[in-house]
Design goal:
422 residues; mainly alpha; two-stranded parallel ribbon; 72% helix; elongated
């Protein structure tokens, strides 16, 4: 095999691993009941592929090959443990059926159940939010530790330690590898959706660093959302979150200029919005609303749909957006939601109406260091012709943000206030 052939084989293996790793880990974890061990066994299968495929060629069903190899290694490991005779009895049937099933391709229901178990485990509330995000991207998303570290602007060793600690916490806490039942299912599903949304938001509006958006994270979150929509099709909020991400992601190309500078919503070239993603999002929104009742993600998707349906900024139904924010605030009270409602009121009824609500939020402790509060207030003040006050607010917002692109935009807007006269 030539060097070019070897490189092609390695690239193929990497692509297959990104797609199939979660299924392999999930299938093995059901056998060994330990997420860390399952990942190690799946990695062993990957090493075997790296050794064999460049010589033998990529098999016709590479995912099944990886699954079969990993499960055989799991069986070997289990056989070496205590109570060998009992394990032989338990695994006799497993070896004759499961490995054959892996060769032939697992039944859809089995894959679905294994994947759900994996996602509910990596998103278990016993872990911190940052650990849930890292572990989910690693084991479900198929990202490398280096890729996750780069995305979140942390050192690779720091990220690796975070993942190790997360797996250890799951093990010491005896977290079962299972899909929760009954009332616990809805509660745990909320944790899963929260993790996916956190990943998407960091990609859509980076909290720190030099980039305004990180499309790769949005793509990873979208992939996870689509997986969940397929695995849990009867839950409205799963479709609501997927709808929200599809519609929001449709704007990514228009959110930055040629130099990487932020482009605000009303200034975006709507011809650059991805219509395929919008259609997919509206379809998911229709499913969510049909399943009902409307939860927070479905309501946010409905808000995003108002923008997606407007061919121009002037056609935006701001009154409807304000109503949806009021409905969302009643469901999940939050000063951030109220701040967004103030923006909508300012657009629908004039800046004075928006400013009245914003000023009521100035004493909210949760918004004390939230840069968008002075940013929104500055925008409303500027529209009212109160340039000096607006400039001071933009400067305060610039001090509070940790994103360099956003800081530059806020400072630019602060300087533009000098031309405004009361």
């Amino acid at each position: 095999m030539t060097g070019t052939d070897t490189l092609k084989a390695r690239n193929a293996i990497e692509a297959v691993w990104r797609i199939e790793s979660a299924r392999v880990i999930a299938g093995v974890a059901r056998m060994v009941r330990d997420l860390g061990q399952a990942e190690e066994l799946a990695q062993d299968a990957l090493v075997a592929a790296l050794e064999q495929w460049p010589q033998s060629g990529v098999p016709s069903n590479p995912g099944a090959w990886l699954m079969s190899t990993a499960k055989r290694r799991a069986i070997d490991m289990l056989r070496r443990k205590e109570n060998l005779d009992r394990k032989h009895q338990e695994l006799g049937h497993t070896q004759s059926t499961e490995t054959d099933a892996a060769d032939a391709g697992l039944a859809p229901d089995e894959v679905r159940d294994d994947m759900l178990r994996l996602i509910f485990t990596t998103c278990h509330p016993v872990l911190s939010a940052e650990s849930r995000v890292a572990l989910t991207l690693k084991l479900v998303g198929g990202l490398s530790t280096a890729e996750i570290a780069r995305a979140y602007l942390v050192g690779e060793s720091t990220l690796a330690q975070r993942i190790v600690r997360a797996k250890k916490t799951l093990s010491t806490s005896n977290v079962p590898f299972e899909v929760p039942a009954g009332a616990e299912l809805a509660e745990r599903l909320g944790s899963v959706l929260e993790v996916i949304y956190l990943i998407f938001n960091e990609g859509y509006s980076a909290t720190a660093g030099d980039d305004w958006v990180r499309p790769a994270l949005c793509e990873d979150a979208l992939r996870l959302g689509r997986i969940m929509a397929a695995l849990a099709p009867d839950f409205a909020e799963v479709h609501g979150l997927t709808a929200l991400m599809e519609i929001q992601a449709s704007r990514i190309r228009a959110r930055v200029g040629p130099d990487g500078a932020p482009v605000l919503l009303l200034d975006q070239d709507r011809g650059r919005w991805d219509q395929l993603l919008i259609r997919r999002g509206l379809t998911e929104l229709a499913i969510a609303e049909r399943l009902g009742p409307r939860g927070p993600y479905t309501l946010q998707a409905a808000l995003a749909a108002c923008h997606a349906r407007a061919r121009t900024p002037e056609e935006t139904d701001w009154e409807r957006i304000a109503e949806l924010y009021a409905e969302l605030a009643a469901l999940t009270p939050s000063p951030v939601i109220e701040l967004n409602r103030a923006v909508a009121l300012g657009m629908a009824r004039g800046p004075a109406a928006g400013l009245e609500l914003v000023d009521k939020l100035l004493t909210e402790p949760a918004l004390k260091n939230y840069h968008l509060l002075p940013s929104v207030r500055a925008d409303l003040l500027m529209k009212l012709g109160r340039g000096e006050e607006a400039r001071a607010e933009f400067l305060r917002a610039a001090q509070l943000t940790a994103n360099e692109r956003e800081r530059a935009l806020l400072l630019e807007r602060a300087e533009s206030c000098l031309a405004v006269r009361a």
